[in-house]
Amino acid sequence: MKIIGRKQQQEELASLLASNKPEFVVVYGRRRVGKTFLIKEFFNNDFAFYHTGLANSNAKKQLRNFQQSLNLYGKMHYPKSDNWFDAFSQLRHLLEVNKTDEKQVVFIDEAPWLDTQRSDFVAALEHFWNSWASSQPHILLILCGSATSWIINKILKNHGGLHNRVTQKFLLEPFTLAECESFFRESNIEAERHEILEYYMILGGIPFYLNLVKKQYSITQNIDMLFFAKNAILSDEFSNLYASLFKNSENYIKIVETLGKKNKGMNRKDLINSAKILNGGGTTRMLEELEQCGFIRKYHAFGKTNRESIYQLVDFFTLFYFDFIQNRKNNDENLWTNLIDNQVHKAWSGFAFELVVLAHLPQIKAKLGISGVLTNSSVWRSKTAEDGVQVDLVIDRNDKVINLCEMKFYNDKLLITKEMDMDLRHKKQIFKDETKTRKAVHTTIVSTYGITKNSYSGNIQSEVSMNELFL
């Protein structure tokens, strides 16, 4: 399968390949997001050296496996190494012997697995780069891994010999809806956009998960097969996901479990108290890593400062797991089929759709014609209204307009009723009164199929449909 999307990354990789100086590249991101696929496909598996670490193996096994890779790419027998300094010395020899006029691409995949206890892997890597590779214009070193905490703390935030040595970093993010549509098309899977949208609400834009979808099954059959059937392939994915990304993943899971109980999020103090974790630098680091991986987002309410930030769980797969799998009380292998149009399904889909919208703000701005306008996105909650007025997406624009966005997930066109119209106008008026804004305030509806035109729809200044999210 060809590379779907990733245009910016491909352009930057091409630039690095054409560079006339040594390059040290780090590629990271959550498990299953397609890091290895991107690098292998872009370079057409044409590496001067390629190696991938072994999961849950000791230093002796890792070094033996590295030796086998050296033998393969060096086309000779390298002696057994007892430490990483010798192993990297042999890698240097291999690259010097096979030096050409073209860039030599060295791809070390799942690097965090190589850094076993007391192995000195990072120190040896540091010595390899600083003592030799950093002076070789033909070297392009790519370090890749899913263990985000290791990548960030041991490489990107290294305060020793690797400090500021990385010349380029890629945080590979999930697909957008448009990329998911391209992925399905490339896989010869016929899926309408509302089906792709629901897949996204469950699986996110994770290529590995999407690749498990079978074209002969309906969406409900596929979800049942992936999650609820006997020996379902994704039934154990949750624990594997966090364990692969974070060292001592228990506290990371405590954080997301706690946030999973509060759809709209929590401030730091309430989160720490509810999750029963210690406050301090370790918590700050965990929150930053969860945010970098896209599991949570940190946001603030309209008019508030960063000191009043809210943390919210936004990972689709994790939310689906908490809602339907974690406390599953029956063994119904057709659970998803039987939940369609159930009230639980409706509540989940409404919130999941909100998160899809938040994940596609560039597409929202494009539809509103403000792609080039500086904006700030936030939420707003009334301090005075007894009915708990809130707006889950406020787009504050530099062109003196504020969009109050209402997200509505429906299986048909949205009909603005008299009651809905009154509610929307009430929210707008309360917002104006409390914020004292001098900007124009527009009501924007983001819905699945758009709005049915009637006597009330004229009060909506702008609308965005599902189709615009696919652009």
Keywords:
Arc Repressor Mutant, subunit A, five-stranded parallel beta sheet, 471 residues, alpha/beta, elongated, Rossmann fold, single chain, 44% helix, five-stranded mixed beta sheet
Question: How is this fold's topology laid out?
Answer:
Blueprint: H1 7-18, E1 23-28, H2 35-42, E2 49-52, H3 59-74, H4 84-97, E3 104-109, H5 111-114, H6 121-131, E4 139-145, H7 148-156, E5 168-171, H8 177-186, H9 193-203, H10 207-210, H11 219-228, H12 237-245, H13 250-259, E6 266-267, H14 268-275, H15 281-292, E7 296-299, E8 310-313, H16 316-324, H17 335-339, H18 343-358, H19 361-368, E9 375-381, E10 390-397, E11 401-408, E12 414-415, H20 418-435, E13 440-447, E14 451-452, E15 462-464, H21 466-469
Parallel strand pairs: 1-4, 1-5, 2-3, 3-4, 11-13, 12-14, 13-15
Antiparallel strand pairs: 6-8, 7-8, 9-10, 10-11
Helix pairs in contact: 3-4, 4-6, 9-16, 9-18, 13-14
